[in-house]
Design goal:
heterodimer; A: 582 residues; alpha/beta; 22-stranded mixed sheet; two-stranded parallel sheet; B: alpha+beta; five-stranded mixed sheet; 26% helix; COI1_F-box (chain A); ubl conjugation pathway (chain A)
Chain lengths: 582, 182
């Protein structure tokens, strides 16, 4: 069938498609569209670095300029994935250094990045512009020094939440005087002090700097100087926000902030001295994003700050805000879209603040645009969840963590099935759900029945039997990621829904009741799934086949099922279901 | 100690016994491999709460799901709170302005009361459970977390320190109704 459009026209049309999903869809239309698309794709997103190999990517997409990739499963954030499991960036960096000399952007999440990788990046890509490392680890400040020194056109260096071995603050001084291209610098996760004069000079010579997130070691007394050099800042993360109370420090800070007419986001605020908070008041009316999740500020001071931020869309805060503070938030911030409330004392046996389900109820009632919530609290009731679901049917992300595992409805002592059921039934656009509290198989029935747009589900200490897992796997049509810990889910549901797993990115199950025998069977049945048994007790075949494995991680892949970097506590099962390990 | 004064940090209105009953449904936490991956944050820090809080629970790996860099913030915040002063306002009936004191500096009620007597140049007298500060011109009272006006001296010192939000030195006559046992 002849197409009337020449290639160039199709390419031009495709250039308007930015989302990877749209591009993937386009490439499936026919062979010629596949060919045209692959030559003009410049950005790629790989959700699981083991789902594909560097060779396959390079072969298919010869003209990439931006690569975004994720490595370890989400539960790695909570120490559930043993050290050394994998997700090494180096093989990708090395392969891409050969294939893409014009690569400009690399974004990695939950991957192990070494100093060698960073050095390779800094030397291989002449036009390198942006490095974003989210929750990565394995590198030191020496690696950062290479990036600073060698990337002449660097626009973005963002280390959000990465674990960096901080050898010294000297790395920052490696930015040459000729480097004036910085747009975004996020060093908030670093511990040691950088040379303040080097930092000041860097900021002063970067007229395009929009985002500056300092680390805790930058003292408050110096903040005003920095901010004064960059009144064009849109996002600012302060360092430690405490100093002796002095009127000259305060007024200098307040003046600096009042010059920042474009400020939209504030974060940092370690070690807050509340008397210094009013210094930012002049910026509050423009603020849309506030991250106070490191700030131990009493509720009253929080409320004073927040009530100035009428245009607030995103708030991350510690539970010091208490129910009363959340009520005030609901009253003043009608544009609020995202709220995250973190626990100030997650391991304390008793509540240390007056934050209950009521806070979430108030915000859900009062903020019509609220669509994304992460909430840690110590008690919950079905009544509250039902009220929340009814007030806010527009939730797309709902993550609730009741700190005590398997906590029942504190009013009725019943499971929270009805409450979460109401959430999935009312919130028809729900894409992400994390549950906690006492939950039976019934809640999974509700989820399977109603949560048709759900893409990611996190379950812990819940359910009674395989039926729970079966409801989810058979009912959730849009499910991509499922992560489960400490639930009595086992072989039957898994094997009955084996085909479903190929439609998902991944399934994680730890401390459940999945036997080694079932893992082998699954791998046999589904050759395009990699079934990784992660067990630190030694080879699974040294135990009975019916014995439960510690963890199993199942993901679809077009790469080889035997990854070369497999550690000695991971067993992946080959087609002939013999066990292969390094 | 009056029997109705339960030494616990329950949420106002919540009944601790109900919560305990719910817990009996709980599946035993599975054995966990020694958490070498854990960041070494110590187990539940209720040890430094002075009330008779339950013993610190064994920590479950990865629960609650708080990223490690946040855990250390929480611990650091606790430490910072512990190190910072506990300043409360002190008002005296009839005085034109208030004072502020750091109650952490005092090691007990008598120490505190002596300091208040010095600061405001008055005498407070002896505390008795039954009769409060009978016989003195002034009686010390405080506003607790719930906003109630309470007589100083009824509860253990540590509990007072954590619940006292504000001090008020009342004239003896006005303070007579502030007995603790109803």
């Amino acid at each position: 069938m002849a197409y009337s459009f020449p290639e160039e026209v199709l390419e031009h049309v495709f250039s308007f498609l930015s989302s990877p999903r749209d591009r993937n869809a386009v490439s499936l239309v026919c062979k010629s569209w596949y060919e045209i698309e692959r030559w003009c794709r410049h950005r790629i997103f790989v959700g699981n670095c083991y789902a594909v190999s560097p060779e396959i990517v390079i072969r298919r997409f010869p003209e990439l300029r931006a690569v975004e990739m994720k490595g370890k499963p989400h539960f790695a954030d909570f120490n559930l994935v043993p050290e050394g499991w994998g997700a090494y960036a180096y093989p990708w960096i090395a392969a891409m250094a050969e294939a893409y000399p014009f690569l400009e952007e690399i974004k990695l999440k939950r991957m192990v990045v070494t100093d060698e990788s960073l050095e390779l990046i800094s030397k291989s890509y002449k036009n390198f512009k942006s490095l974003v490392l989210t929750s990565c680890e394995g590198f030191t400040t020496d690696g950062l020094a290479s990036i600073a020194a060698n990337c002449r056109h660097l626009k973005e260096l963002d280390l959000r939440e990465s674990e960096v071995e901080d050898l010294s603050g000297h790395w920052l001084s490696h930015f040459p005087d000729s480097c004036t291209s910085l747009v975004s610098l996020n060093m908030s996760c670093l511990g040691s002090e950088v040379s303040f004069s080097a930092l000041e000079r860097l900021v002063a010579r970067s007229p395009n700097l929009r985002t500056l997130r300092l680390n805790r070691a930058v003292p408050l007394e110096k903040l005003a100087n920095l901010v004064r050099h960059a009144p064009q800042l849109v996002e600012l993360g302060t360092g430690a926000y405490s100093a002796e109370i002095r009127s000259d420090t305060f007024s200098s800070l307040a003046d600096a902030f009042s010059a920042c007419k474009q400020l939209k986001a504030l974060s940092g605020f370690w070690d807050v001295v509340p008397s210094y908070l009013p210094a930012v008041y002049s910026a509050c009316s423009g603020i849309t994003s506030l991250n106070l999740s490191y700030a131990a500020i009493p509720s009253s001071d929080l409320v004073k700050l927040i009530s100035q931020c009428q245009n607030l869309q995103r708030l991350w805060v510690l539970d010091y805000i208490e129910d009363s503070g959340l009520e005030a938030l609901a009253a003043s911030c009608k544009d609020l879209q995202e709220l995250r409330v973190f626990p100030s004392d997650p391991f304390g046996a008793e509540p240390n603040v007056s934050l209950t389900e009521q806070g979430l109820v108030s915000v859900s009632e009062g903020c019509p645009k609220l669509e994304s919530v992460l909430y840690f609290c110590r008690q919950m009731s079905n009544a509250a969840l039902i009220a929340i679901a009814r007030s806010r049917p527009n939730f797309i992300r709902f993550r609730l963590c009741i700190i005590e595992p398997q906590a029942a409805d504190y009013l009725t002592l019943e499971p929270l099935d009805a409450g979460f059921g109401a959430i999935v039934e009312n919130c028809k656009e729900l894409r992400r759900l994390s549950m906690s509290g006492l939950l039976t198989d019934r809640v999974f029935k509700y989820i399977g029945t109603h949560a048709k747009k759900l893409e990611m589900l996190s379950i812990a200490f819940a359910g009674d039997s395989d039926l729970g897992l079966h409801h989810v796997l058979s009912g959730c049509d849009s499910l991509r990621k499922l992560e489960i810990r400490d639930c009595p889910f086992g072989d039957k549901a898994l094997l009955a829904n084996a085909a479903k797993l190929e439609t998902m990115r991944s399934l994680w199950m730890s401390s459940c009741s999945v036997s080694f025998g079932a893992c082998k069977l699954l791998a046999q049945k589904m050759p395009r799934l990699n079934v990784e048994v992660i067990d630190e007790r030694g080879p699974p075949d040294s135990r009975l086949e019916s014995c439960s494995v510690e963890r199993v991680y199942v993901y679809r892949t077009v790469a080889s099922r035997q990854r070369l970097d497999i550690p000695d506590f991971v067993w992946t099962l080959d087609e002939d279901s013999s066990m292969r390990y390094s | 100690m009056p029997a109705d004064l339960n030494l616990r940090l329950g949420l106002p209105g919540s009944d601790q016994t109900d919560v305990d009953a719910a817990k009996s449904n709980k599946r035993a936490s599975p054995e966990k491999a020694e958490d070498t991956a854990s960041n070494g944050v110590p187990a539940a820090k209720s040890a430094d709460d002075h009330e008779t809080a339950p013993a610190p629970k064994a920590q479950i790996v990865g629960w609650p799901p708080v990223k490690s860099y946040r855990k250390s913030t929480a611990a650091a915040v606790k430490k910072a709170e512990a190190e910072s002063g506990m300043y409360v306002k002190v008002s005296m009936d009839g005085a034109p302005y208030l004072r502020k004191i750091d109650i952490k500096l005092y090691n007990g009620y008598s120490h505190l009361l002596t300091a208040l007597e010095d600061m405001f140049k008055l005498s407070i007298g002896e505390y008795s459970e039954r009769e409060g500060y009978k016989g003195s011109e002034y009686a010390p009272a405080y506003e607790d977390k719930d906003g109630d006006l309470m007589l100083v001296g009824d509860v253990p010192w540590e509990m007072f320190m954590s619940s006292c939000k504000r001090l008020r030195i009342m004239r003896g006559a006005d303070a007579r109704g502030l007995g603790c046992a109803q």
